[in-house]
Amino acid sequence: QARRKIDPDAPAPKAKLMASYYEKLTTLFWVSQNHLFHAYAWFKYYALCKEYNRGMSEETKRMLASAVLLAALCIPSIPQESGASGEKQHGISSTAEDDIVKQKMARMATLLGFHTRNPTREALLAEIRSKDLLDQVPEYLRNLFFLMEENSDPLFMVEHAEPLLEQLKKELGNTTTSDENNDDVEDTTLGRYVKPLTSVLLLKLIVNLSKTYHTVSMDFLKSLTSGLGMTFEQVEKSLVLFTQTKTLSVRIDHRAGCLRFGDTQLESDVMRSQLTVLSKQLESVARILQPKDQTAIAVSNSASYASIRAALPDEHKRIIERKTNIEQRKEREERMAQEKVRQQERQKAEEEAQRRKEEEIRIKKEHLAREQEKQRKIQQEMENKEKIGILKSMGKKAEEISEEQLAAMKTEALEKEAQAESNRKREEAERKTKEAAKKLDYLVRAIRIEELPLIKKKYEEKVKSDRERYELETVEKVKKAKEQWEFDVKAKNVMEDHGVFKFMEEFEKMVMAGREVGHKELCKEAEAKAEVEAEKAKIRRARKRKDDEAKKAAEEARRAKEEEEREKQEALERAKEEARREKEAEEQANREAEQRRMDEEDERRRASESRGPPRGGGAGPARGKYVPPSQRGAPGGGGGSRFGDRDGPSRFGGGGDQYPGGGRYQGGGGGGSRFDDRGGGRDDRGYGGRDRDGGGRDDRGPPSSGNSRWRN
C-alpha cells in the first residue's frame, strides 16, 4: 500500500506473495502475543488461499479454517455493559488514552491491509459467520465455538468445554504443557491454541459469575476450574491480570476465603439510582396487575387528535410566518454584520498600512542608529584593545583600569610612554646582565681558588682508602681461594673411593660405536646434499655469468650507439661552425672590397673637387650656415638648394646636389666635412659620417652583397 501511494500506477503484488506475507505475520503476532492481529492475519491468509489456490485439498481447507476459528476464539473478550451503568461499575469511561489506542489499532490495521479501521473480536467473528467458515471446521470445534460465544451458564461451561479441549489435544497433538514458558514458536499445529483458549474460557467463567453472584467461595471456584488443567495459583494470577487490564472488577478475600465482585468505591453510585429503578419496575407491575381502560384512552386520544388537526393550518401558517421573519431578520443581521466586517477590515487595513509604514521608518532609524553605534563600539573597542596591549607591554594591570579611564587616555601618549618604558627596561636589563656576569665571574673565580686545595686533599684521601680496601680484599680473596682449594681436594679424595667413572668406559665405547655408525650415515647424507647444493650453485653461477655477459654486451652496444650518435652530432655541429665561419669570412671580404671601392671613389671625388669650385662659387657665407632664400642667389655662393637644383651652398656641402660624393650613404659629403680627414657631412648619422659608407669611426661597413639595401 505504501508503494502504491508513492506510485499509483504500480501493479498490485501477486496473491502468492501476499499469502506468504500474511503467513509470516501470523508467526510474528503469535510471538508478540497480539492475538487480535494474529487472528486477522490468519483470516487474510485463509481468504487468499481459498480465492487463488484452487487446488487446495479439503484437509488443508479444514486445517486453515480451524486455525482461523481457534485464533479468533483466543482473542480475550472484554464484556460490554449497556448504558452508563457499566462505566460506573468499573469506574472507567472513554478517555483520551482509549482514543489513542483505537487510532493506533486502526492505523496498524490499515497498514497491514485488513480492510477495517476497527479491528475487534466481534467483527472478526461476524466475518467468520458470514463466510460460512463454521461449516468447514470439525464438529467439536463448532461446539466449542457455540459454548464460548452463546452459552452463559458458568456452572456447566468448563464441564462442557473440557472434553472438547481434550479432543483437540488428542487429535492434533498436545504441544503445550502447564509450564507457561513452553511456547514453541516453531510448532505449527493447532494444539498451541489450547492454553490461550483456556485463558479465555477462564475469563468468560469469571465474567458470568460476576453477573450472577456477588460473592463466590474459593472452594466453589476451585471446583469450577478443576477441569481447565490449571492450578489455583495460576487462576489467581489470571484474576490479577484481568483486574489490571480493567476487564472485570473482582477482589480476592483470603481471610473470608471468597471472591467479591464489584467495586466498593462506586457502590454509592449504584445505590443512588436504586429507588428510580424500583419505581419504574413497580409501575410496570401495576400496569400488568391493573390495566387502564383502553376505550377511555382511545376517546381521549381521538379528541386530542381532532383539536390538533383543527389548529394545524393556523399553526402551520404561524410557523411559516415566523420562519420568514426569522430568515429576513437573519439576512438583515447578516448584511449588517458583513458591512461591519468590511468596514472593520478596511479600517484594519488602513491601520495596518500606517503601522507598517511607521514600523519601516522606525526599523530604518533603529538600523541606522545600531550601525552607527556598532561602528562606534568597534572603533572604541579597537582603540581600547590597542591601549590595553600598550599598557600590558608597559607591565601595568589593564584589568584594574575602567573603560572611562581607557577612553580618556590618548593612544599617541601611551605609545610614547611605552616606547620610553621599553627603552628604560632594555637599558636596565642590559646593565643588570653586565653586573650579573661580572659578579658571577668573580664568584666562580673565588670558588675555584678556594676549592682547589680541598679537591687535592679529597683526592689523596680517596686514593689512600682505595689502596687499603684493595689490599684487604686481596688478602681475603687469597684466603678464601686457599680454603676452597683445600675443601675441593678433600672432596676429591672422598669421591675417588666411590667413583663410577671407571665403570663407564665400556658403556661409553658401546654407545660411541653406535653413534659413529649414525654419524657416518649423516656425513654421507650431508656430503650428498652438499654435492647437490654445489652443483646447483655452480649452475646458478653459470647462469649469472651468462646474464651478466648479456647485460654487459647490451650495455656496451648501447654505449657504442650513444658514442656514435654523439660523434655524428659533433660532426654536424663542426660542419655548421665551419659553414658559419666561411660565411663570416666571405662577408668580411665583401665588406673590405666595398670599403676599398668607396675609398677609391672618395679619392676621385676629392681630386675633382680640388680642380674647380662648385656651382654657385665665390666665397659666400660660412659652410653650414643658414642662408635666407633672398640671399641664396647672391654672389659669393649663396642660394644653393637642398636638393641641388639651385645655386648657392647646400646644407651638406658647398652647393649643388645633396649627395655629390656618391650618394647619401657613400660618405662623399658636399663641400667637405667638419672632420677634414673623412668624407663630407657635418654629422655622424650617415651623411658622410662615421657609421655609414663614408668611412666614419665605426668599421662595421655595409652587409654582404647577397642581400643588402646598399647594393648598387
Automatic annotation (TrEMBL):
GO BP: formation of cytoplasmic translation initiation complex; translation reinitiation
Composition skew (Basic and acidic residues), residue ranges: 526-537, 545-609, 674-701
Compositional bias (Low complexity): 622-633
Keyword Protein biosynthesis tagged: yes
PROSITE patterns per UniProt: PCI
Keywords, comma-separated and alphabetical: Cytoplasm, Initiation factor, Protein biosynthesis, RNA-binding
Molecular function via GO: mRNA binding; translation initiation factor activity
Keyword Cytoplasm: yes
Biased composition (Gly residues): 651-673
InterPro entries according to UniProt: EIF3A, eIF3a_PCI_TPR-like, PCI_dom
Every PCI domain range: 61-266
Classification via Pfam families: eIF3a_PCI_TPR-like, PCI
Ranges where the record places region Disordered: 322-381, 412-434, 526-712
Annotated TM spans: none
A single GO cellular-component term on record: eukaryotic translation initiation factor 3 complex, eIF3e
Record protein name field: PCI domain-containing protein
Originating species: Entomoneis paludosa
